[in-house]
Structure prediction request, 264 residues.
Amino acid sequence: MQIEPYVNISVCRAGSPLADTRTHCHCSLPAPRLLACYHPSVPARGKFITFEGLDGSGKSTQVEKLARSLRAHGLSVTITREPGGTTTGEKIREVLLHSATAGLSPLTEMALMFASRAQHVHEVILPALAEGRIVLCDRFTDSTEAYQGGGRKLGTKPVLQMHEILCGNLQPDLTILLDNEVAFSVERARRRNRKHKGARSEKGSERDENRFEQENRAFFGRVRHAYLAIAAREPHRVHVVNARGTPSETHAVIMELVRKKLKV
Ligand code: TYD
Prediction:
């Protein structure tokens, strides 16, 4: 079976070792399209944990807290985010989130999210997992299903198809969905962005990541609904965590989940 020599990993989708050339494997699964020669149950793989939720649900705080706790246990952790996570991805992020970006069609928006993600999977996520690291990613494909699929009404199907084609259907080992009322989360995100308005990015340009926060309540209602539908569809992977508590309370719940689920 021909495997695209796309990622330098040593196991295939069924967990079978690759041949020496690393371009062939011995399993009988249909040929993957891009980098799918990869299996979540293979012990050599690190752990891929994603955080999801509405804007202002407190994801970044929880990512940092979890990373600190895991590192304190001596584990190697990579923190990353989407859109972004690579030099190219951060440029795409600026286009996607800047409030001056006007008139993007929903399909273009989805395509840009996936352009950033495909590069991120290739350049950061798979290499880190292949090294056995724990990857904590602030947003992944569930965000596209919730925001572009639900919020922009593109539906689930095109998102999952793009994920298959561009990301080899890579699945997180665990997804933490921080859930809160729409009004509460979005108001928090808007307050934060007002506070940062005028701040400068590393390149010296004004930091402006307001484009999605300008959407109305109905949009975020659809996003939340789509998230909860994903959690209902994939209960083994996606765990809904109530984000109404203090950051420490929420962290304790997440830590317990991570311990149980990933046995760390
Ligand atoms: P993020 O920086 O995580 O915002 P916040 O910290 O406010 O939660 O994400 C930026 C925005 O990008 C957020 O409004 C959600 C949106 N987004 C999508 O619409 N689709 C996607 O696939 C991703 C990754 C993000």
In short: Residues 47-262 form a domain with the Rossmann fold fold (CATH 3.40.50.300). The beta strands are 47-53, 77-81, 134-138, 174-179, 238-242.
